[in-house]
Amino acid sequence: MGIFDGLPVSQEKDQYIREELAKIDENWAASRFDSLPHVVHILTSKDREGEIQILRDQCDVVEDVVDEVVQSYHSGFNKAIQNYSQILRLFSESTESIAVLKGDLVEAKKHLGSRNKQLHQLWYRSVTLRHIISLLDQIENIAKVPGRIQSLIEEKQFYSAVQLYVQSTLMLEREGLQTVGALQDVRSELTKLRGVLFYKVLEDLHAHLYNNGEYSSSGCINDKDEEIPTTTAVALSNSSQPVSRRTRLLKSESHSTSQGLAGGSFRSASIDGGSSYDGQEDEGHEDEGQVNGVDGVKIVSKQIPIWLSKATPDEFLETIKKSDAPLHVKYFQTLVECLCVLGKVAAAGAMICQRLRPTIHDIIVSKVKSHAAQVNSSSPSIGQPGQIFATGLQLLKRHPESYQLSKQKRENAILAGTLLAVSPVTPVMAPTGKAQSAAKNLLDSILDTIVRVFENHVILGELLELKSSNHTEINTPKSMPTDANWNPDSEGSQVTGGYSVSFSLTVLQSECQQLLCEILRATPEAATADASVQTARLASKTPSKDKRQAYIVYKIIYWLTLDGSEDGLSFAFRFTDSTLSVPNQGSDIVRQGWSKRNSNVSQEGYGSASVLPDQGIYLTASVYRPVLQFTDKVTSMLPQKYSHLGNDGLLSFVDNFVKDHFLQTMFVDYRKGVQQAISSPAAFRPRAHATATYTPSIEKGRPVLQGLLAIDFLAREVIGWALAMPKFAGEIVKYVQTFLERTYERCRTSYMEAVLEKQSYMLIGRHDIEKLLRLDPSSASLPDSQDGSFMENNTVDAKVDGIELELSDILLSLRPIKQDNLIRDDNKLILLASLSDSLEYVADSIERLGQTAGSSSNQVEEEVRTRRRHIRTGSALTRDLASFADEYRKLAVDCLKVLRVEMQLETIFHLQEMNNREYTDDQDAEEPDDFIISLTSQITRRDEEIAPFVAAVKRNYIFGGISSIAATASIKALSDIKSINLFGVQQICRNSIALEQALAAIPSINTDSVQQRLDHVRTYYELLNMPFEALLAFISEHGQLFTFNEYSNLLKVQVPGREIPFDAQDRMSEILSALP
């Protein structure tokens, strides 16, 4: 800002002055101005008049500016001068008045000094009267306290009522009011109201503890912490015990609320309900205005909860206002603070302990009844015994994919009944049955409720322990006798009346264990071993039962009668039969809910039989997962000091029950089912009414043997139990392996009964034949084949011919084939075909089961590793089951190999009649030979019989070796034929054509390969009709078509009308040797 800003100076003058000021030398602005140099400068200047004129102009401008400023501020200057003059006058008058006042005060002092004693007496009388009036006001207000407390109790303003009670009690203890006889009735009423208030608080705490209260966590909409609480270690001011996340916010308030509140000292407050600071009532009304009804739930201001709207401000109220704890936790804090102020923490803890078990029992019963009502309203109960089997059949009809049965076929319906007969459980009790789902849903619902209840018990237990650590004498005076041998770890539970987080957890798990025993239809003795172990462990930490019981009884009686005989309370406590007797003191109705006998609670059931079947031990699978989740949730809630209790209760019981009872029962039952399945006369009997063609789908009628189908069903069912309980999957899979091993032995026995002492069975066991069969391209169709490249190659190359020729030579060397060495019973061949397909089906199923069990075990492996327990890995389980699948496939392949070799031996058996025979017919053959007719009819019949039991590609394998062995046998038979004419050649060609037609009628066979091989036979025999020279010409052109021996046999056989030179062999050898 400039020096002329705000002054009444024109813009032109302002600009001019600024420019002139800029031209002034620094000497003019010096603090001590020296005018002599300027005077000398003007005098020595050539234009002295001009210099003087410049100064005059500058002076005129400055004077004009000064005149303008003075004119503008003249009136203001005058007014200021006048005000200053008036102030001086007032000061002068005040000085004179003060001097007069001093004189008057001196005079008054002289007059008052002469009457000092009389004034002192009057002042003392006025003070006494004020005190009397104050006492009368207090008496009047105290007389209204009982009614106000009753009103606050009805409004559930418990903390306000407790404050008013404590303040009134302290007021009655004052020296001036102790002797007032009119207040004796008030004292008596307050004593009764203390009991009423205690039971009202306890009743509300009990409802809130089990989520039935107005501010419970289950109904609190604005509860920001809906997750399961986790344990967080927080160092308290007076205790090093860690607390959970629910109560870690109590650290700041633990010390402030404990000072004075237990002793009844509060900050400034009045009996008549007045507030110690302004705005309290208005703020309370604001909070009441913020309460909105949403489905019966109150949304309360974060600053002051509605139940504290009428409370007198104190440290606890300030702590609640600043706390970020959820609403239901704040309500817990309020109720616990009320009990602490009333000095009833131990009594409340004892009564909560008394009511814990029956309340949990009632909750479970109500859940079961609710579930039963829901089930009955939606569908008939699955627990009704008369409907179990019918329901299972309905499931089979409605869901064929569950049991892989067809609902259209009568035979499959019979199989369904067979499966139900061999299974130890009904369909509804199967691992995926409705009973398992119902049990799991029921237990999930119950345990979820128990978890929420235990969450509240953790909060309450930590609050009580927090109070007990800060108020070691709130319940027990210093004169209270103590036991020197008492365990110091239980000192906190003594202060809280025996109540603690561990006690509540023990009771909750005990009730849940009783529920599980009822669901599983197990006697409580099922957990005797586990209970004895826990008892022994606890016995090492606690005194004897009698001593502990007597001590607790004495403590509880003392706690309940601690405040004087006016309460008239008596308390008898027993661990199995708890009774609370309270004389009529005006609060009988309040105490009525706490005086019920509960001796028959442990004997009463939960009613689970109305919704669950009687075959309860198999419900273990549906019980295991909810119990595991329940244990994890409970463990995450427990404070650090109780973390060791997480896995010692319910989960341990279930683990022991599974190991000691369920697994043994399941093994025995399923072993009986397996034995029944494989020992039945129809177990390995092929179906009598199979479909016309093979179908790979069970639903469409795949003719798997009844015994193996039952075994597969049982194996999948047992694996279902393993999936339901992954921790025990290793042991359960071992059972499956045992069953599969026993079944394999039975299959092997059935296989041996069909092939014993048969030549085909002995041949496939030879190393050379087994090697050739493995190298044969057709073996690519076998179940254990690793290479299927030959399946796409329909051309018979030299390598294939070499393998087939070598195998044919070995088989032909066995001639003559005896009929006794062949499997002449077609039923055995059908059994081998059906057994092969059934074994392959079971092998595929085993592989799928191994993958399923392996994936399940891998999922639980990490969880089990964190629990530091050992199980077999999923890869090991998969390998074990895969080895059984390989064994089953190997036996299935052996069945197919036997069938293939058997058909080749049958072909050799029929064709060996060509040997040592003369084909010199005198007329053209119209029909093939009888042995060819027998062979073709046998091929056709066996193909029709085997077709429903094996796939097309395996039919090709079984009958595909006939053409090669027939061609080789027919060509080699020429060496044994004595003579043959033209009609004989036609007869042999007719035989090959009939055989080709029979083989071509098989849909799955490679007709091109059959035709090529048998054309080769016809070409060979038609060479007999050629003259010798024509035969030599053919050999020169097609020398590699046949071998040297085969060409030699053409020359050796006698053909009527054909001349063979004496050097025919030499000339043929010369031609063959000249070929490349």
Characterise the protein shown here.
The protein has 1076 residues and is mostly helical. Helix content is 62%, strand content 1%. The protein is built from 37 helices and six strands. The chain has a two-stranded antiparallel sheet. The protein has a two-stranded antiparallel sheet with strand order 3-4. Strands 5-6 form a two-stranded antiparallel sheet. A hairpin with a 6-residue loop joins β5 (570-572) and β6 (579-581). α14 packs across α23 (706-724) and α29 (874-911) runs parallel beside α32. The termini are far apart.
Helix fraction, binned, reads 55-70%
pLDDT averaged residue by residue: 74
Strand content: under 5%
Report on the biggest sheet: 2 strands, antiparallel
Q: Give me the secondary-structure category.
A: mainly alpha
Strand order in the largest sheet = 1-2
Radius of gyration: 55 Å
The end-to-end distance, rounded to whole angstroms, is 124 Å
- Number of discrete helical segments: 37
**How many DSSP E strands?**
6
Brief summary:
By secondary structure, this protein is an all-alpha fold.
Fold topology:
Elements: H1 11-23, H2 36-44, H3 48-113, H4 116-154, H5 158-172, H6 184-209, E1 231-232, E2 243-244, H7 251-254, H8 280-289, E3 293-294, E4 297-298, H9 315-322, H10 327-342, H11 345-378, H12 388-398, H13 400-403, H14 410-422, H15 434-470, H16 491-495, H17 501-519, H18 528-539, H19 545-560, E5 570-572, E6 579-581, H20 588-591, H21 620-637, H22 650-679, H23 706-724, H24 729-755, H25 759-764, H26 767-775, H27 798-812, H28 826-866, H29 874-911, H30 930-946, H31 952-959, H32 962-973, H33 982-1000, H34 1007-1022, H35 1028-1037, H36 1044-1052, H37 1064-1074
Antiparallel strand pairs: 1-2, 3-4, 5-6
Helix pairs in contact: 4-5, 4-6, 5-6, 5-10, 6-10, 10-15, 11-15, 11-17, 14-23, 15-17, 15-21, 21-22, 22-23, 22-24, 23-24, 23-28, 24-28, 24-29, 26-27, 27-32, 28-29, 29-30, 29-31, 29-32, 30-33, 32-33, 32-34, 33-34, 35-37, 36-37
